[in-house]
Specification:
Helix 2 crosses helix 7. The strands form 2 sheets. The protein has a 5-stranded parallel β-sheet with strand order 6-5-4-7-8. Strands 1-2-3 form a 3-stranded antiparallel β-sheet, with no helix packed on it. Strand 2 and strand 3 form a beta hairpin. Helix content is about 35%, strand content about 10%. The longest helix has 16 residues. The chain is an alpha/beta fold and about 350 residues long. It has 13 helices and 8 strands. The radius of gyration is 20 Å and the shape is globular. The protein binds zinc ion. Zinc ion binds next to helix 8.
C-alpha cells in the first residue's frame, strides 16, 4: 500500500518501504487525492504497476504551469503560454557529470519561478529498469502536479519537442515515417485522460516543433538568457562544449564547434539521433561532416519541414490557450508546414 505524508518541509511517497520525496514550503497542504494518484501512476506504470484512479475528480485550477528545465525548449514554451509559472525539478542526488546549478538559477530569475528538489527520478533505479530518469510522457511534470493545489494550477505545459525519444508523440522511437502511430495514440490519450481526471490539461506547445524552431523563438525573445542552456554538464553559466547536445545546439546557433566523443558515437549509429536537425545545420549553417554531407541530397532526407511548425499538433493545446499560442507564433514569425512539407515529413526516416 502506497502512503503519503508531509514531514520536515517534504512531501513523501512511501512505495514498498522506500521514501520518494519532494521539497515543499511550510504552508503546503496535502494535495487532492487524484493528484497523488496521478503521480503514483506516472512513476510506476511504465514498470507494470497498477494504480487505480481515485473516484473523486479534481476541479481544474486557474493558472498555467510550465515544467521548466532551464533549457532552450522549455524557455521557448514560456513564451507561448500566458502568465506561465515555471516549475523546475532539481535532482537531489545528481550523477557525477550532472550539474544542477544552472537550471536552478535560470528558474530563480523568474519572479514566480519555483524550484522543487527531490529524488523521484530514482524510482526506476529502485523498482524498474535500474536507471534514473522519468519513463512516461508527462513524467517530468510531477513537481507541477504536486504543487497544483498550492498554486491553483489547471494546465501544465512541457518542453517536449518533435522527435523526443522517451515519451515522444511524433516520430516513434524507431524514427521511421510515422507521424503518430496507433500505439502511440492510445498511450497519449490514456496519459491526457489521467491528467484531466486530476483537473489538469497536459499541454504540449512545442510538440509540433523541432529544436530549430524552439531555438528561433528563444533567440528572438526578449529575456535575460544567463544560465539558460541545454547542457547538463555546464558550470557557472557556461555549457561544457564537449557533449552531443553542445555540438548540436551550437551548430543550430550557427557556431560550429569541434567533434567530441559523444557526438562521434552518435554519428556512428544507425539510426542517427536527431539527424533531421543535424542535416538542417549542414544545409543552413555550414556544419561540415562527410557522412552528413553525403545524406543531404537523398530523396528520403528532405528537411524542408524542419524549421516549420506542424499545425496538427494544436490538438495538444487546450482550446482556451490556442488564440494566445497562435498570436505568439505569428509574433516570432514561425512558419507553418505546407502540405508538401508534411508529405516530406511522412517520408522521413533517420536511418542511413
Ligand atoms: Zn555540453
Amino acid at each position: 500500500m502506497n502512503t503519503w505524508r508531509i514531514e520536515n518541509n517534504r512531501i513523501i511517497l512511501n512505495f514498498k518501504n522506500f521514501d520518494f520525496w519532494w521539497s515543499i514550503p511550510s504552508d503546503f497542504k496535502m494535495p487532492h487525492i487524484s493528484l497523488l494518484k496521478l503521480v503514483e501512476w506516472l512513476l510506476s506504470s511504465p514498470f507494470g504497476y497498477e494504480i487505480i484512479d481515485y473516484t473523486i475528480p479534481r476541479k481544474y485550477g486557474c493558472n498555467n504551469a510550465v515544467s521548466y528545465s532551464g533549457g532552450v525548449d522549455s524557455t521557448a514554451v514560456l513564451q507561448l503560454v500566458e502568465n506561465p509559472i515555471p516549475i523546475h525539478y532539481e535532482v537531489a542526488n545528481p550523477g557525477k557529470l550532472h550539474k544542477t546549478i544552472n537550471g536552478v538559477l535560470a528558474t530563480k530569475k523568474h519572479s514566480n519561478g519555483v524550484v522543487v528538489t527531490g529524488n523521484a527520478n530514482e524510482f526506476g533505479k529502485n523498482f524498474g529498469n535500474g536507471k534514473v530518469g522519468f519513463w512516461c510522457l508527462g513524467g517530468f511534470t510531477i513537481p507541477s502536479i504536486l504543487y497544483a493545489d498550492y498554486l491553483d494550477i489547471g494546465t501544465i505545459s512541457t518542453g517536449d519537442i518533435f522527435g523526443n525519444f522517451n515519451g515522444g508523440v511524433y516520430m516513434d522511437s524507431i524514427y521511421t515515417n510515422k507521424i503518430i502511430s496507433n500505439e502511440t495514440r492510445i498511450h497519449v490519450d490514456l496519459v491526457l485522460n489521467k491528467f484531466r481526471h486530476a483537473g489538469l490539461y497536459l499541454t504540449l506547445p512545442a510538440i509540433g516543433m523541432t529544436e530549430i524552431v524552439t531555438t528561433k523563438i528563444f533567440k528572438k525573445c526578449n529575456i535575460d538568457k544567463n544560465y539558460i542552456m541545454g547542457c547538463m554538464r555546464g558550470e557557472e553559466n557556461t555549457p561544457c562544449m564537449n557533449c552531443f547536445k553542445c555540438y548540436r545546439k551550437s551548430a543550430i546557433d550557427g557556431n560550429i564547434i569541434d567533434l567530441n566523443p559523444e557526438t562521434e558515437n552518435n554519428l556512428s549509429r544507425n539510426p542517427i539521433l536527431r539527424l533531421h536537425e543535424l542535416l538542417w545545420c549542414v544545409k543552413n549553417n555550414g556544419l561540415k561532416h562527410p557522412l552528413l554531407e553525403s545524406l543531404i541530397n537523398r530523396k528520403d532526407k528532405n528537411i524542408d519541414w524542419v524549421d516549420k511548425w506542424y499545425s496538427a499538433s494544436i490538438e495538444f493545446i487546450p482550446e482556451h490557450m490556442r488564440d494566445y499560442f497562435l498570436t505568439k507564433l505569428k509574433e516570432f514569425e514561425i512558419e507553418t508546414m505546407t502540405n508538401d512539407d508534411i508529405q516530406k515529413l511522412t517520408e522521413w526516416n533517420s536511418f542511413l
